[in-house]
Prior knowledge:
The complex is a heterodimer of chains A (290) and B (285). With 290 residues, chain A is mostly helical. Chain A has a single domain, classed as MetI-like fold, CATH 1.10.3720. In chain A, 73% of the residues lie in helices and 0% in strands. Chain A has twelve helices and no strands. Chain A has helices at 13-51, 57-61, 75-106, 109-123, 127-142, 147-172, 175-183, 188-199, 201-216, 220-223, 243-251, 256-283. Chain A is flat. The two termini of chain A are 42 Å apart. Chain B has eleven helices and ten strands. Chain B has a six-stranded mixed sheet with strand order 6-7-8-3-9-10, with helices on both faces. Chain B has a four-stranded antiparallel sheet with strand order 2-1-4-5, with helices on one face. Chains A and B meet through helix 7 and helix 8 of A and helix 3, strand 6 and helix 7 of B.
Amino acid sequence: MSPADPTPTPRDARMTWRRFVDRAMAGVMLLCSVLVMAPLFLVVYFLFREGASALDLNFFLQLPKPTGETGGGMAHAIVGTIELLLMAVVLGVPFGVLGGIYLAEYGSDRTSYWVRFAADVLNGVPSIVWGMVVYALLVVPFKTFSAYAGGVALGLMMVPLVMRTTEEVLVLVPQSYREAGLALGIAKWKIILVIVVRAAMKGIVTGVLIALARVAGETAPLLFTALGNNFWNRNLAQPIAALPLQIFSYATSPYDDWHRQAWAGALVLILMILGLNLLVRFLSRDRNFD
Amino acid sequence: MLTMAEPPASNPTVLPSQPVPSAAASAPAPVASGEVAFDIENFSLWYGARQALHEVTIRIPATRVTAIIGPSGCGKSTFLRALNRMHELTPGTRLEGRLRLKGQDLYSAEVDPTVVRRRVGMVFQKSNPFPTMTIAENVLCGLRLNGVTDRAFLRQRLEESLRMAALWDEVKDRLFRPGVSLSGGQQQRLCIARAIAVRPEVLLLDEPCSALDPIATAKVEELIHELKKSYTIVIVTHNMQQAARTSDRTAFFYLGRLVEYDETRTIFMNPANPQTEAYVSGRFG
């Protein structure tokens, strides 16, 4: 009886039992997978069901209507979110990427350990704490909520995220490329910039997009910083609207029409984040060295 | 013109801006037989507390091929990497003794390891063309990143280097395809072209054929024969036939010590040391 023979015989009834357990466990795991997937589909389903009716062209083009009037949109909040994210990128990417390069290429074991530890702790800091910190640093001294403060809060949140992902993808670049560069008599910083970072570029961009997707939906850090408003922001030193803030204030309002708009806003926000994630998927398709 | 005494790229501005007529003419001129490239005395090297090389004393001749053989872990790769200070990438190394290239102490305090590596190029066991670069970019990487911008000169150097690496005819129609699109053997010759494009004085080959099939190996060995006209070559190899075929002199390392160093013919036909005899006849190692 070769072990590869698939037909059970009476002699090994244990095999039948094992086969049954094997199938049962596979079934349990499939069920767990479905349970993991289900919330995503439920979220998207409910957002479409509740929000799609309020989602029209005006939603993207108009400002909120005064209380009591129906219609209007969240154009200012969509643009505000994009502006805040751009500011977050400007702050978070240079610090995060350079910090990641330091960790992967320069830091001694001991300094890297502490920098990495600090980054991991910062990754776990509740987002509302970031909001309070920036409130104390930028809002109180300048005596006004501002787009800048919101951008800084989101940017600071991105730094440790980008730093760790950058480090991880740089470490994946085989040592042999660095050695090849050194053997050509190229200075270390040039090797890192032109050879190592270029080889890891897709991974770094992926990390930035993941961090961006993570902070795009943050509400708490913006409550004390960007504050939100109902009109176009023309001065970044003034409060600015953002989708999560707008959703928050509409969802807690007593008006049905605003509730519908809040659903629509959540739908747009989710689609934006989904788009970022799809972009990440696309970019990280075939990242491999040899 | 580049001279042996002046490291070619220690100051990028001294690189010739005029295209040079041919590969042979631009390479360092052949030197009189007997000239010494590396003069090494009582050279010892430690990784942390473990001593990897024990008081190695050896003189490696210029424009000859010197093979380093020995069983795994005998220190031959460590020795090779010490010749262009690549071992310094491993933290916690310490060394004693003297290592001179053309009379210059490579380990004296005022010598920059980057400059040493421009004089002493290296090709690795596994081919490692830069993944984001084309064939042409790979070859010219060392020059460009050291500040050479003259397009005509770069173009000239590209063709020369690929011709010297016996790769030109195979890639001349696809210079702007990725370097990693080549076959394994071609990639290794691309790495050799990249190493010689900066016109080093010495070429270190660390088991350059161990990942190649016999045909690609034969091509690389042929290439070594050609290159020794202009370069001092030191090759580490596990393959004793390869050492016998390609080298003029052979050094046998065992347990971090230089056991025997002589003409290749002598090492293989009539070694003085019984350990060498046992190793080259395949009785241990």
